[in-house]
Amino acid sequence: MNTFFLPAEVIPSHKVASWLLTNIDLVLDKIGLARDKTIEEIIYVAVIVGLALFIGWLVREIILWGARRILKWRHTDTGEELLRQHILSRCSHIIPPLVILGLLPFAFDTKSQLLHLFNLAVVIYTIIVITVAITAVITFVWSRFNKRENTKNLPLRGILNICKGVAWTIALIVIGSVILDKSPAALLTGLGAFAAALMLIFKDTILGFVAGVQLSQNDMLRIGDWIVVPSTIANGIVIDMSLTAVKVQNWDNTIVTLPPYTLVSTSFQNWRGMSDSGYRLISRSVIFDVDSVVACDDAMIQSVANLPGMDDFLGRVKKSGAFYDPGLATVNGTTQTNLGLFRAYMCEYLLHHPLIGTDQQILVRIMVPDGNGMPLQIYCYTTTAWTAYEAVQSEIFEHIAAMAPKFGLRLFNNPSGRDVKSLAASPSQPAAIAGMQQPQNGVQNQNK
Predict the structure, then answer these.
(1) Residues 109 and 41: beta-carbon distance below 8 Å
(2) What is the C-alpha to C-alpha distance for residues 79 and 57, in angstroms, rounded to an integer?
């Protein structure tokens, strides 16, 4: 073992090595240990490696100290970001192995097997720290671009991960070629046989990469978008996106993680267009009892003429006989029924509401009647602020409930137990109720 790992020619013959070996012998004599060639070589190797590491560390600290002083003196945003992300520290790890590689030929004989092993280990370490430095620089460039230039909040983290993956893949190929003492091109040729296995192992990464490119290229998704994915429980804000995961923070502050290809292979709803437009749609209906919709007479028209906006509407209808305006935000209604008058009134109400967008479509329309009654839909746009949106929507339908009786309209409501009790307690109803119960009693008597 001694002849292979620590041969006699480990220690070179130049003056520095001879001086160091003489001092090692003096130390061994002082502590009372015999002069053994193997012990001398082990101590020599330990001293040389320790000295090389110390010199490399010292050079690194000196350069790092000077660079930090310069950056702090200039006070730039880039300098502060470099210090905050420790980019200089990560890049400075390249210096010690370079110093060691420069000192090793002076520490060992050129024919030493130990020199070859040390060179191999230091070269591998150098490749690793260079890759770490490259990925640190890539991360810094990405963070600066994402912060200053990415005004659309495009999901660029996937591209960052791809660059890091490519850097580490190249590093692994180079390390393999160094260990096997072969050309990287020959190693890549050999890896072709494992392409199928690699595609299976990295299936999610490949799918995520393709999906990320599609999402970015088509501008389908950005950080900060509110999305709804119907096939999942995701309904919230996109907070992060990488090659393998899209993180959505739901409104209850839970985090839903989705594969990027799920968003590409299935449909999802993105509310960014609503946010960018500055308007959010209100589209909700109330149902009126059909038998409360009646023809108007002069008394009914006069009773609502003093309501806000109705005087102008009645004046225009009186001149033209009918009033139908095809514009976006207009008043439409009739004087033939109380529901037509109510439609006109609600149009006037929405047009004069401070939080309703008058440059967007405003409709107060009758939907298809069903077994419950006649639906009246409010279709308009208001602010995108969630609290204000809900407040405006609630205010509109509260106003409808309060004003509908002035037009003789009744909102539909299914009968409750209270309604049945009121019907039974009504003085005009006992005979009818008794008549309804009599056949049942008759049936019961016949059954008896």
Answers:
(1) no
(2) 23
Comparing CA positions, the residue from 44, 141, 53 lying closest to residue 96 is 53
Residue 59 confidence (pLDDT): 77
Find out whether 122 and 108 touch, Cβ atoms under 8 Å: no
Residues of the chain under the 70 pLDDT cut: 1-21, 24-25, 28-42, 44-45, 71, 74-86, 102-112, 114-115, 148-158, 186-198, 201, 321-323, 419, 423, 426-448
Q: What is the DSSP letter of 243?
A: S
Reading the block at residue 395, the tokens are: 């205010």
Q: Count helices and strands (H / E) in the chain.
A: 19, 8
Q: Which amino acid, one-letter code, is at 10?
A: V
* Long-range own/partner contacts, residues 119-128 (CB < 8 A, 24 or more apart): 120/178, 120/179, 122/97, 123/178, 124/175, 124/178, 124/179, 125/97, 126/94, 126/97, 126/98, 126/101, 127/171, 127/174, 127/175, 127/178, 128/171, 128/175
pTM of the model: 0.57
Distance, CA of 366 to CA of 379 (rounded, Å): 11
Q: In the CATH hierarchy, which top-level class contains the domain 215-275?
A: mainly beta
Query: What pLDDT sits at residue 428?
Result: 56
pLDDT at 323: 62
For residue 150, the model assigns a pLDDT of 57
Closest CA to 186 of 175, 177, 178: 177
- The pair of three-digit structure tokens given for residue 197, joined into one six-digit string: 């296995």
Residue recorded with tokens 């050309």: 183
Q: What angle do CA 190, 195, 197 make, to 5 degrees?
A: 115
Q: Supply the pLDDT for residue 57.
A: 78
Per-domain boundaries in the chain: 2-213, 215-275, 278-407, 420-447
Nearby residues of 66 by Cβ (< 8 Å), 6 or more positions away: none
Question: What tokens were used for 132?
Answer: 């770490």
Amino acid type, 172: L
CA dihedral 112, 118, 119, 124 (to 10 degrees): 160
